[in-house]
Amino acid sequence: MSECRIGVFGAGVVGLTTALELQQRIRNARVTVIADNFKEDTTSDRAAGIFSPATYFSGPTPEVSQEWINYSYNFYKELQNELGIGIRDLSGYVLSNRCYTETRNKYLETLLPVYRSVDGEELASIPTGDWKYASYLTTLLIECRQYQPWAMKRIRSNGGEIVSGKINSFSEVENFGKFDVVMNCTGLGARVLCNDKKLLPIRGQVFKVDAPWLDKFYYGGSDTYIIPGIWAATLGGTRNFNSWDTSVSRYDSACIWDKCTRIVPRLAKAPVLAEAVGLRPYRPIVRVEPEIINGLKVVHNYGHGGYGVTSAPGTAHTATSYAIDLLRGTSSKL
């Protein structure tokens, strides 16, 4: 394959990971990442970064969904020992007072090195001590505040470019050059760019607190989570469908604080470093597919909801395969 130019629109965890995958698998590709938000201005930067997909996370089929999760986990494990990348093992509990099945995760039970039920003395030892059901697991933490700058540096060191810009229609792509293939990793921006009404924001609000002593994560029922981080612990959260409100709600703050400090009472004395709101780009089925738009070869990769960190390497792998097919003129998906 001769030299080709590929434009990646979007610089969140999905866009940057897609750019890395392209560089790895298409050796003669000149990759340019174009975005209007970088690093701390992306939704990914606000993410807790725990590798834990919801059971409702969905690709086109259950088999593809599991493949994405498996590939992503192995991708991060291979990078785990690199300095400054922000990936480490993290263990903790998924808790419920209603039924044991709420603590299980079909994507993770056969993938992770540790995933087991909890009962007896161990269940009673969990800080509040009044949970009826729990599972204990060891997964990964991917700190985007470190991973995203690392990915940008790696992209540049591989010969790629990162430039500031934004498109509102695919006819504007030529403003940034002539590309053989364009990767659409624009997250919520795809709602306008693709006129995709299936793509909706899910508003999430969290606290970032200083709790270096916290060594386990806790999921305590619907949208209540406590996740240790490298620079701060994340306490959440909210899941407001189709809400575009990016302001901090005092009502949500009070609810989050109350629920989280009930699970781990010691957190009541943890200094608050920040409160943050992010809009997760949710689509019932994550869109990863090729399309020809007025002669322009495009591969879509968006709609990951709150699970972009968890699934980005997997969807990037599939998206790159589609890009290779388009470059070769052999795509069977069109």
Automatic annotation (TrEMBL):
Top-level taxon: Eukaryota
Pfam families associated with the record: DAO
Gene Ontology biological process terms from the UniProt entry: D-amino acid catabolic process
Binding of FAD, residues: T43, S44, T186, G305, G306, Y307, G308, V309, T310
Residues that hold D-dopa according to the record: Y225, R280, G306
UniProt cofactor(s): FAD
Keyword Acyltransferase: no
Keywords annotated in UniProt: FAD, Flavoprotein, Oxidoreductase
InterPro entries: D-amino_acid_oxidase_CS (IPR006181), DAO (IPR023209), FAD-dep_OxRdtase (IPR006076)
Domain FAD dependent oxidoreductase residue range list: 7-320
GO CC annotation: cytoplasm
GO MF, one example: FAD binding
Family: Belongs to the DAMOX/DASOX family.
Protein name, UniProt field: FAD dependent oxidoreductase domain-containing protein
Organism: Nezara viridula
